[in-house]
Amino acid sequence: MSVFSFTSPIRRVSQVPAAIQGETAWLRPLGPDEADPLHAVFDAMSPESRYARYLQAVPELTPSMTRTLTAVDGTDHVAWLASIGDRPVGIGRYFKVGPCSAEIAFEVADEFHGLGLGAALLDTVTTVAAVSGIRELQALVLGSNHRSQRLLSLVGLELAPQGGGVLEADGPFHLLEQPRVERPMVVRLALVAPQPVAA
Ligand SMILES: CC(C)(COP(=O)(O)OP(=O)(O)OC[C@H]1O[C@@H](n2cnc3c(N)ncnc32)[C@H](O)[C@@H]1OP(=O)(O)O)[C@@H](O)C(=O)NCCC(=O)NCCS
């Protein structure tokens, strides 16, 4: 199990601030096998939000899902964690699915929805993707998930029905017109290979 402090000055140096409504969130790459924040965010999501994220009912993260979702390498699987204070509140990620394409996914703790965290995570992840040579993004969202659809439209992704009430985006993207994070800081941090998080 990893041990981390989100509030120590040392950790702050390697995090990127994002101004969200009334708060500052801090973003950093998720470390390999760093399960605690993944579970903290998951535990703070309602069954409906979990369904929106995974497109099926997920009452708990199984060990196998946890392994998959924390097997980040900074290249083929990139995940960034957003925290407020010392509380993990959101994760944005992409998995490469081809030489220049990746699938993106996001989750934010329910009580922090609508404050701009999703946009900050989207800006971060798309910035890393762009500098990593990714030109096309894929995403699957519920037809009823209008907030997520609005977010994806901010980076130019168009959604088409895929069946079963699910919409699919698969195509070129651009960065958000209005940056939500200091992109040069994101790029600098992204270029450092993900390290196990120490105390
Ligand atoms: C989808 C999700 C990640 C969005 O995160 P969030 O922090 O609530 O989103 P944000 O507050 O950054 O942004 C969403 C809103 O800001 C709007 N917005 C942000 N920047 C904007 C801009 N520059 N111009 C216009 N609208 C903007 C979005 O369109 C959206 O509008 P709404 O609040 O009226 O719905 C979150 O709701 C969640 O975790 N849901 C459950 C899991 C899920 O659905 N994941 C997505 C599928 S993988």
Description:
- With 199 residues, the chain is an alpha+beta fold.
- It has a single domain, classed as Aminopeptidase, CATH 3.40.630.
- Helix content is 31%, strand content 30%.
- It contains 7 helices and 8 strands; from the N terminus they run αββαααβββαβαββα.
- Strands 1-2-3-4-5-6-8-7 form an 8-stranded mixed β-sheet, sandwiched between helices.
- Helix 5 crosses helix 7.
- The protein is globular, with a radius of gyration of 16 Å.
- Bound molecules: coenzyme A.
- Coenzyme A (COA) binds next to helix 3, strand 5, helix 5 and helix 6.
Query: What is the correct CATH architecture?
Result: 3-Layer(aba) Sandwich
Secondary-structure element order, as H and E?
HEEHHHEEEHEHEEH
Q: How many individual helices?
A: 7
Q: Would you give the CATH topology?
A: Aminopeptidase
Highest CATH level, the class: Alpha Beta
Number of strand segments? 8
Structural Rg: 16 Å
Assembly state of the chains shown: single chain
Widest β-sheet, arrangement of strands: 1-2-3-4-5-6-8-7
Number of domains: 1
Task: Produce the secondary structure layout.
Elements: H1 9-13, E1 16-20, E2 23-29, H2 35-43, H3 47-54, H4 63-69, E3 77-84, E4 87-98, E5 101-108, H5 117-131, E6 136-142, H6 146-153, E7 159-163, E8 166-172, H7 183-191
Parallel strand pairs: 5-6
Antiparallel strand pairs: 1-2, 2-3, 3-4, 4-5, 6-8, 7-8
Helix pairs in contact: 5-7
The protein binds coenzyme A.
The site of coenzyme A has 22 residues, from helix 3, strand 5, helix 5 and helix 6.
